[in-house]
Amino acid sequence: MTARTAGHAYSTGLELVLNAAGSALQILVTDNGRIRCFQEWHEAGRATEILAPALRDMCAALDIAPASFRRIGCVAGPGSFTGIRLVLATAAALRRAGHAQLASLDYLQALATSAVMRRGLLYPSPVMVVTHARRNLVHYRPFCSYGPQIPAQPLGPVELITPAEALARMAGEPCHVCGGGLARNPREFAPETTGRGPAGAPDAVVMPELTEPDAPALALLGRHGDYFRRDIEPLYVRPCDAAENLGELAARQGMDGDAAVAELAELLTRRPGSRD
Predict the structure, then answer these.
(1) Residues near 43 by beta carbon (within 8 Å), at least 6 away in sequence
(2) How far is CA 71 from CA 68, 105, 111, 141, 275, in A?
(3) For residues 261, 264, 270 and 275, what is the CA-based torsion angle, rounded to 10 degrees?
(4) Under a CB-based contact definition with an 8 Å cutoff, are residues 84 and 76 in contact?
(5) In degrees rounded to 5, what are phi and psi of residue 234?
(6) What is the 3-class SS of 56-74, one letter each residue?
(7) DSSP string spanning 141-186?
(8) How far apart are CA 252 and CA 240, in angstroms?
């Protein structure tokens, strides 16, 4: 905790927010809600080698110790399996090195909140988030705006659906729509030349440029997060490709595919510490 915030009983102190659920690595440092530093790296596949050195250099430039973070907000998904694991493992290590509490932040909520803040949307404006999951599948979740000072609130669970199904959800009422799934599926979501919305949802205001959360939205979610002294579980919605194809992958390595699948199932369901 810095000297400036130490005397304030209600200060949130030094806070770190990490996000790698999408196509960018985002690192945010705030002090009592005020943004001190924000970095966004668009280096696909290099987040693992970038995060630790970037965080070290940010802390050195701000003259703070990595162990001094009071709270760490972790964007736990849904999104990139590798990016989510990287963020959660880094946050878990920092928690053990210092005294930080951790909070799980929702990637889709961060995007919806970014749309609310960019457009100044008031209650009860609907915002729908569509992000890429895999070929012909998107993560979809509807939100309601409560104004730019409050994180957008979910109206339902995260769904794994086709782009066509997401488009049908958008057709019911005027709404704002954002997320990387729009640009990845232009056939469904590209606006018509004569209107603002895509064919089938003419009243939807699409924001294809909003593919990653904005720093103010991440700071707002971090400030309102629920923090605990324990590690964060990842938010996976779709099955892991490697797990789904484990039998075939094992057979290619000369192993028994059925045995590999059975062993994975046992490893995923046994109690922690039940076997060395």
Answers:
(1) 25, 50
(2) 9, 12, 21, 27, 33
(3) 120
(4) yes
(5) -70, 150
(6) HHHHHHHCCCHHHCCEEEE
(7) EEEE---TTS--EESS--EEE-HHHHHHHHTTS-EEEESTHHHH-H
(8) 18
pLDDT at 70 over 70: yes
Sheet of strand 14-19: strand arrangement: 34-41, 25-31, 14-19, 71-77, 101-106
CB 237 within 8 A of CB 78: yes
Q: Are the C-beta atoms of 160 and 148 separated by less than 8 Å?
A: no
pLDDT digits (tens, 9 = 90+) for 214-238: 999 999 999 999 999 999 999 998 6
Q: How confident is the model at residue 244, as a pLDDT?
A: 59
The Cβ-side half-sphere exposure at 28, using a 13 Å CA radius, reads 29
Neighbours of 77 (CB within 10 A): 26
Where is pLDDT greater, at 237 or 115? 115
Distance (Å) of CA 220 to CA 16, 117, 194, 241: 12, 10, 36, 33
Task: Please report, in angstroms and rounded to a whole number, the separation of the first and last CA atoms in the chain.
Answer: 39
**Whether the predicted pLDDT of 153 surpasses 90:** yes
The enclosing H or E element of 39 equals strand 34-41
* Contact criterion met (CB below 8 Å) for 257 and 246: yes
CB-CB contact of 28 with 63 (8 Å): no
The helix or strand, by DSSP H or E, that contains position 40, with its residue range, turns out to be strand 34-41
CA distances from 162 to 77, 139, 171 (A): 19, 9, 15
